[in-house]
Automatic annotation (TrEMBL):
This is OsmC family protein. InterPro entries: KH_dom-like_a/b, OsmC/Ohr_fam, OsmC/Ohrsf. It comes from Oceanospirillum sediminis.
Length: 143
């Protein structure tokens, strides 16, 4: 896996993935940025949420759950000292579908956290306290 990050101006960069997708990364205006893209640490959170959501969806589909949507809402705390690393991250999954079985949703979230999500496992191994929970929105009205 490869990526490149090219400085453009101030604290703005253009990052390009090995698969050819690019995005602007920028700092906050009070740090010399122009707010034209996410901050680097925000990208880490978005990557974590994407990685874990990918797992949750795949596991639920394999369990034949009729899922229509999955949203990961992520909140993080950072150290007050430099380096300002993440100390705590909480992922809250909102899974929407028809006739969802709570045991399957719970298992999918747990398996992602404990076995499959490389980003989550890597951050936890580095000392970040990562917690997960979920809620279900069952559109069949049987929730």
């Amino acid at each position: 896996m490869k990526a490149t990050v090219k400085w453009t101006d101030g604290v703005q960069f253009v990052a390009e993935s090995g698969s050819g997708h690019a995005m602007v990364i920028d700092g906050a205006p009070d740090h010399g940025g122009r707010n034209t893209g996410p901050r680097p640490m925000e990208l880490l959170l978005m990557g974590l949420g994407s990685c874990s959501s990918f797992d949750v969806i795949a596991i639920l589909k394999k369990s034949r759950q009729d899922i229509l949507d999955c949203r990961a809402e992520i909140e993080a705390e950072r150290a007050d000292t430099v380096p300002s690393v993440f100390t705590k991250i909480h992922l809250h999954f909102v899974v929407t579908g028809h006739n969802l079985k709570e045991a399957h949703v719970k298992r999918a979230v747990e398996m992602s956290a404990e076995k499959y999500c490389s980003a989550s496992i890597m951050l936890a191994a580095g000392g970040v306290e990562i917690t997960h929970d979920y809620e279900m929105i069952d559109l069949s009205g049987k929730n």
